[in-house]
Amino acid sequence: MKSPVNRVICWVFNTDLRNGHDGLALLAMKEAKFSVADLKCGQFVLFLNRRLNAMKIYTAGSGVFHHKNRDDRPYNFHALQLVPQFMKGAEINYDLALKTAVTGQFEKMYPGFSGQGTSKKA
Q1: Residues spanned by the domain of 72
Q2: Residue 1 placed within a domain
Q3: Mean pLDDT (whole number) for 12-41
Q4: Does residue 82 lie in a domain region?
């Protein structure tokens, strides 16, 4: 049996990330008309702050993960869609999600792009 692919099914923007479980659940209902109680395994609700440089991810079973972009820049939205695929335990590997998203975009724009670095011969 194929395991479900982790994916973001609901986005909430301009979130005060000081909210805990209950506050995030209320925001999801108010802003997106979505009940976090309906989350199934592999589904996530993504909450982004106003500056788009920090997030919380609400998971099935009422788990909440927090991540802040190291360089304080806004997240790449293509990468955010992939973040759940790069979660391991309590760790979010945003850098790998970003690399995968950027490589995917280049592959669409430039067929044959491998994402592997090339070296120049002297």
Answers
A1: 7-109
A2: no
A3: 95
A4: yes
